[in-house]
Amino acid sequence: MLDLDNIEQYKENNRIEAKKATGGLPDSLWETYSAFANTLGGVILLGVEEHPDRSLHPVDLPDTAWMLNDFYDIINDPKKVSINILSKDDVTVHETEGKHIIVINVPRADRNNKPVYIGSDPFSGTYRRNGDGDYKCSREEVEALIRESKNYDPVEDTKEYKDVVEAADIAAQTELEQTSLERRDSEDGIYFSWCFSFWNIKKRILREKYNINWKTPAEMSAVSDNEDEL
After folding, report:
1. Which of 3, 18, 32, 72 has the fewest CB atoms within 10 Å, i.e. is most exposed?
2. CB under 8 Å to 202, separation ≥6 — which residues?
3. Which domains does the chain have, with CATH numbers?
4. Alpha-carbon distance 93 to 61, whole Å?
5. For all residues of the chain together, what is the average pLDDT?
6. Is the Cα dihedral 204, 114, 160, 168 positive or negative?
7. What is the CA 55 to chain-centroid distance, rounded?
């Protein structure tokens, strides 16, 4: 949980995004919402700017009530955002240093709701979080997210898996970012192999650290395809 009264101690990272938003809701807000939902979840801070030293500072929002109405109008419109995965408690207004900011806690989307995307087309509106940036998913990655929603290892329904999956996911994401396993397209910066690299690292971490033998969605999809051929 962030200490919002000492917000200057934080920097943007793979789970924190700050947006000044003094002119209204920025379009990039929805890219970050999609990216957090499809990755590990995260916190979006509206009314906060990043200084040259990368520290975060509140700037005050002129009308939080109007901005929240606008926010809910958009996030509840399926033509603009595929799904609203937020609960009432996930969106709050906080006062710090005499200034008002909006705090949006975006949970990681359930596999059945992935991909979370903006607009009407998942192949053009799906994003992933990497480091402190939001990256548009390639068609391959979107197809992988769809596969993840349909093909999963039954071990995921066990208590043993559920007790450690968040830690394993965070460890896998951290390793993926640190070692730059993803391949970046030279023209548009898309990470083509993100999903598959993440799954393989997560599989190893679950096996080596938690003694859980987990099959990736790609492996489960292959099993399903083989069964269909029989």
Report:
1. 3
2. 168, 169, 172, 214, 216
3. 4-111 (3.30.950.30), 139-229 (no CATH)
4. 10
5. 89
6. positive
7. 22
If one compares 224 and 146, the residue with the highest pLDDT of the two is 146
The H-or-E segment that residue 165 falls in is helix 159-179
Q: 């070692």: which residue's tokens? A: 179
Q: Tokens standing for 173?
A: 């994401």
Rounded Cα–Cα distance for residues 27 and 125 (Å):
12
Sheet bearing 42-46, strands edge to edge: 16-19, 42-46, 99-106, 91-96
d(CA 220, CA 197): 16
Q: Structure pTM?
A: 0.89
CA 100 to chain centre: 25
pLDDT band with cut points at 50, 70 and 90 for residue 225? low
